[in-house]
Write a structure and sequence with these properties.
The protein is an all-beta fold and about 270 residues long. It has a domain at about 65-205 and about 210-230: Jelly Rolls (Sandwich), CATH 2.60.120.260. The chain has no helices and twelve strands. This is Chitin-binding type-4 domain-containing protein. Keywords: Signal.
């Protein structure tokens, strides 16, 4: 996917270029003691997309009404990044660390060098049922909030080249904890194959401070399976034919005298 060098505040702006960070100025104040990151970066970070080629392929989808979750390892509880991959445009190392969302054990996170518009771009190729409407949810985390000339840290979710999710902290009160997003929506292509992207940047330069990002609990489900119109309205009743009246026999006149059986004349008065 072409790199999207953009930030979010209350509207999205597209920039043709980004200014490089200038040199830091020497301060007369004593150097403060740095605060250690909340999540220790114990695992070895993943920086190169090429070593991830060993990831096993995703399973083929089961196209039924009970649509399965096409995202594999969206909670990172395997302790591995697979089958997520870092793109060729990615500039930030990442790893599966501790302290996930909602008390889970793991989450994807970056080191603390999310600054100077360093660009995180990761993706997963998914296989879904074609022409299905899909909803997804996920949890995102920014450790700090910065506002650099109207630009703030952000995370975006893309379905191929379609921006389907744009989230960012709006103040210091929105930083330092996981936010759960319910929900984003997209339609699967005819082939059922798509690429889900996660991109993130933080705008402050290195003189201002560091930042780090985390994402967890990424899952999807179908609102309607392919060609499934859903329950819809009650069916129209089947029209019943109007019954035709049963023809009745025409009554015959009753004779004045009983019929004569055998020979002889009729009786007289």
């Amino acid at each position: 996917m072409a790199r999207h060098l953009v930030h979010s505040l209350f509207a999205t702006s597209l920039l043709s270029s980004l200014a490089l960070a200038g040199p830091c100025h020497v301060s007369s104040h004593p150097t403060p003691t740095p605060t250690p990151p909340t999540c220790p970066s114990t695992p070895d970070p993943i920086c190169d997309p090429n070593p991830q080629s060993f990831c096993a392929p995703n399973p083929e989808p089961e196209c039924t009404t009970n649509f399965y979750n096409p995202i594999v390892n969206g909670n990172f509880e395997t302790g591995s990044l697979c089958p997520w991959k870092l793109s060729a445009d990615n500039e930030v190392c990442g790893y599966v660390g501790d302290q996930g969302a909602d008390g889970t054990s793991h989450a994807f996170r970056t080191p603390t060098n999310m600054r100077d518009n360093n660009y995180l771009e990761m993706y997963q190729d998914i296989k879904t049922c074609g022409r299905a409407k899909v909803q997804c949810s996920y949890s995102w985390y920014w450790d700090k909030y910065y506002n650099a000339d109207g630009y703030v840290p952000y995370v975006r979710i893309w379905n191929d080249n379609e921006n389907v999710g744009n989230r960012f902290p709006e103040s210091d009160d929105d930083a330092g904890y996981f936010h759960n997003v319910q929900t984003i929506e997209f339609y699967t292509p005819e082939s059922g194959r798509a690429r889900i992207w996660i991109t993130a940047q933080s705008p402050q330069d290195r003189c201002v401070g560091d930042n780090w990002f985390s994402i967890d609990e990424f899952q999807c489900w179908a609102i309607a399976a392919p060609l499934d119109p859903g329950p819809g309205p009650d069916p129209e009743p089947t029209p019943q034919p109007t019954p035709e009246p049963t023809p009745q026999p025409t009554p015959q006149p009753t004779p004045a005298f009983p019929p004569i059986f055998g020979g002889g004349d009729a009786p007289t008065g």
